[in-house]
Amino acid sequence: xxxxxxxxxxxxxxxxxxxxxxxxxxxxxxxxxxxxxxxxxxxxxxxxxxxxxxxxxxxxxxxxxxxxxxxxxxxxxxxxxxxxxxxxxxxxxxxxxxxxxxxxxxxxxxxxxxxxxxxxxxxxxxxxxxxxxxxxxxxxxxxxxxxxxxxxxxxxxxxxxxxxxxxxxxxxxxxxxxxxxxxxxxxxxxxxxxxxxxxxxxxxxxxxxxxxxxxxxxxxxxxxxxxxxxxxxxxxxx
Amino acid sequence: xxxxxxxxxxxxxxxxxxxxxxxxxxxxxxxxxxxxxxxxxxxxxxxxxxxxxxxxxxxxxxxxxxxxxxxxxxxxxxxxxxxxxxxxxxxxxxxxxxxxxxxxxxxxxxxxxxxxxxxxxxxxxxxxxxxxxxxxxxxxxxxxxxxxxxxxxxxxxxxxxxxxxxxxxxxxxxxxxxxxxxxxxxxxxxxxxxxxxxxxxxxxxxxxxxxxxxxxxxxxxxxxxxxxxxxxxxxxxxxxxxxxxxxxxxxxxxxxxxxxxxxxxxxxxxxxxxxxxxxxxxxxxxxxxxxxxxxxxxxxxxxxxxx
Lengths: 238, 307
Description:
The structure holds two protein chains of two kinds. Chain A contains eleven helices and no strands. By secondary structure, chain A is mainly α. The longest helix of chain A has 35 residues, at 19-53. The radius of gyration of chain A is 20 Å and the shape is globular. The two termini of chain A are 33 Å apart. By secondary structure, chain B is of the alpha/beta class. Chain B is globular. Mean pLDDT of chain B is 86; it is low at 18-32. The A-B interface holds A 86-88, 92, 95, 97-98, 179-186, 189, 199, 201-205 and B 41, 46, 50, 54-55, 58-59, 62, 68-73, 85-87, 185-186, 188-189, 191-192, 210-211, 214-215, 246, 248.
């Protein structure tokens, strides 16, 4: 690994934990949140396109469902997913409780509404002339959609970041469905940065909690910076 | 011909599965009773988890059987509820009444006494209610209520919370009012909370010792380990989820775990686990006199008061 920020930690502060522990927690956080956000995006963009480009009965209703979803309490999502994946639940046979997959499910539910709503806003705000031009040049529906997505990419990137922010900073639902598990060698199974912070705070280890909090903020800022950077490069190549 | 082969296969599978239950098949792999590579989900209380005991002793078990243990820390009530739903294979908790109910309802099987420590009543050194050195927990609680001194309650249906409610009952006090605060959180949080506002609380000795360096609270009423009242005893039990209720419960591995943790070497490891130079848990699985009481839910025989 050419640049491993975790290895640099001890230079700045006295770390009260093993590197492997923090690294695995960061990995689980990123793995769960990124997977959930990618899946959410794959669902959200088509939904936003359909919502933005067509009219169908009940459209307003769907829109209000999505908007409600944006503010849906995450612990309730956690509870619902728990009922789904519990052995008594409909997905019980899949043995998903206390796994990363269950956490991905709950974060998917959390991240999809904001990504859809913000993408939809971005897509509908693309100038009508752009669509007309694309259509006039003989573009198929797909071509038009691609052109509009390209125009709206900043807004869509914002949407994805909003979804990512909601996913990675979430603690209630991942604690309920994930169980905050590390294996005995101190490697995280379903422990994320947020649930680790919760655990440390519960034990009164505020120093450790603060360090993990700083790591979480750094991770979020880094991901945001990368996405914004990608957007800028895209703009320059235009 | 094909049909006969099929029948043979079914028959063999049936024999294998029956044999598997009684562990007669032995093991193909070295060092494991056919459980290698499997995962045991253990729900346990925050008070065991937060002391770090499990991190200390689990590697031994994982190495011996080639398995992983996923320990989920919840309150005793939640830990039992998770097991009741079939979402864990084994439970390590400390509320005999709730454990017995779990057993009586058929969700648990093969309960064993595991270890014990005790509860202590802690509070600020200034001791505003003046309970220091009392030899009755109920009397101390009654005094706190009388003085309306701030008291932090876990309020989370945990083993400690259950014990606290027992003591209030014993004291003949219905706690309530501004001075009594239910915070709905784990032991560590309750200790911090009590520390911040100079309140009393009931803590298990293990969590208190492991957090002592961070807080200014002090032990005002000792538990039985230091000669305090029996009422403050804190026994831990371990029980497997009944595979007859939840067939996906990993019963073989759960029994391997129970066998291992009640073995002399693991019991030694428990008694050797110290923090800040103090022993946190006292092993109880080994006994010179057979203690059949440990398997029997309370109320099943006439002289059954183990609490």
